[in-house]
Design brief:
Rossmann fold; Helicase, Ruva Protein, domain 3; five-stranded parallel beta sheet
């Protein structure tokens, strides 16, 4: 197993025994007999767990030395799991060390299997803390961008204002939310807005793209796994549910989830716990669930493709995002935002939009919604010569019926239209559309991302 363990004990025979026991379990073992070396170790966050003796001076068994060095370690690496070791079964001392921040307590002489199990649990806790810390760092960066006027939601239309009114009301609750809308409308952006205005805004926001997860890896990705659970499970790993504990879990494209996996998801939501792949021990979770899809889940329920009880579970509040073609002048507001962004990125300075270019943007139907607008503006900024974005700089694909213009279409354009047609025919059901087109669901999903559908 990958992992870095620190052992601190003044008895060298014990150090040797622990090194021998652990060398087949972890990649790196550091053993020190003098605890004073801890002071000069600098950043200890690279370690995954520590085994720390309680007593270092002869004839002294109060445990105060161990508690002192526990505090020193926690001061250097607050999230680092520490297991205390002592030859004396003093429960008061055990409780005191736990209150000081130790994660567990073992007695000498130890049982090898019990010690290994205790260390595995501590290692797993450390991995969980690191992942949560990284997610929180990402959230802090997101909040920093927002505070620096990188506005997350742009729009002045009535449709958007009404939607945001609901978003702000819902955010203050713990209710599960289902966000629906066409591809490219910004469902994840709305999910983050709900989290940002919620009581959990200082906790983790963990997003999962359900359409991109291979079905065989679904349980591992969401629920985690233990070492040896399957061929590539070389170490314990927490899932997204556990990583988002205390915060918000966003399940994007939930309509792509197969029927058998819907049952597993429903069970976890009902019981508020997950069971890692390869384990039978439940882990309690506390998450606020936000789901999103471009599919019509009510029709999927009628067709037997989506569990009705799961729909009720995820759909306490339903938020429908309007397509860009129904948002009027929001198209221009968004275009200005992207022009500023890409003008800076590509060193074009301040750019303005010619009135003819504005009309061209407003007249277009934007089937790919905000994602298509963003890509179009980025391309236009690159092509623009001078400080004015002309209508000729804006390249739009007017999509006529394939049968009317088939000879003039490229293979890529034909493929795009076939995919769009199949998804439309099956109301966004990727599984059914993939079967019609003769490709895997994963391949279809990747192509829709590529074409901006």
């Amino acid at each position: 197993m990958e992992g870095k363990i620190l052992i601190v004990d003044d008895n060298k025979s014990i150090l040797n025994a622990l090194e021998f026991l652990l060398e087949g379990e972890y990649a790196y073992i550091t053993a020190i007999s003098n605890p004073n070396k801890i002071t000069g170790m600098g950043d200890m966050s690279s370690y995954d767990a520590v085994l720390l003796d309680m007593n270092f001076s002869a004839e002294v068994n109060t445990g105060n030395e161990g508690l002192y060095w526990l505090r020193q370690i926690k001061g250097k690496a607050p999230e680092l799991p520490v297991i205390m070791i002592t030859a004396y079964g003093d429960m008061d001392l055990a409780i005191k060390s736990l209150k000081e921040g130790a994660v567990d307590f073992v007695l000498k002489p130890w049982d090898n299997q019990k010690l290994l199990a205790t260390l595995r649990s501590a290692f797993q806790l450390g991995q969980s803390r690191k992942e949560v810390k990284n997610l929180k760092k990402d959230q802090a960066n997101l909040r920093s961008l927002i505070n620096n006027n990188d506005q997350p939601i742009i729009g002045e239309s009535i449709a958007v204002k009404n939607m945001l009114t609901i978003v702000r009301k819902v955010a203050k609750t713990t209710a599960n939310v289902l966000i629906t809308g066409e591809n490219g409308t910004g469902k994840e952006l709305i999910a983050k807005e709900i989290h940002r205005h919620s009581p959990r805004n200082n906790e983790v926001f963990a997003g999962v793209d359900m359409g991109s997860i291979q079905e065989s890896l679904f349980e591992s990705e969401l629920f985690g796994h233990i070492k040896g659970a399957f061929t590539d499970a070389k170490e314990d790993r927490i899932g997204k549910f556990e990583a988002a504990n205390g915060g918000t879990l966003f399940l994007d494209e939930i309509g792509n989830l197969s029927f058998p996996l819907q049952s597993k998801l429903l069970s976890s939501l009902q019981n508020r716990e997950v069971i890692k792949v390869g384990s039978n021990k439940p882990v309690a979770i506390d998450i606020r669930l936000i789901s999103a899809t471009n599919s019509n889940l009510d029709e999927m329920v009628d067709n037997g493709d989506f569990r009705e009880d799961l729909l009720y579970r995820i759909n306490t509040i339903h938020i429908e995002i309007p397509p860009l073609r129904e948002r009027g002048d929001d198209v221009l507001l968004l275009a200005e935002f992207f022009i500023k962004k890409y003008g800076t990125k590509y060193g074009k300075g301040k750019l303005i939009i010619h009135k003819n270019a504005k009309k061209k943007l407003l007249d277009y139907s934007w089937p790919g919604n905000i994602r298509e607008l963003q890509h179009t503006i980025e391309r236009s900024v690159i092509l623009c010569e001078g400080s004015i974005l002309q209508d000729d700089d804006i390249l739009l694909k007017e999509r006529s019926h394939p049968a009317l213009n088939e000879l003039e279409m490229t293979l890529e354009e034909m493929e795009r239209d076939m995919i769009a047609s199949a998804l439309s025919r099956h109301d966004g059901n990727y599984t059914a559309a993939a079967e019609q087109l003769g490709v895997s669901r994963q391949t279809l999903y990747n192509k829709t991302k590529r074409f901006g559908l």
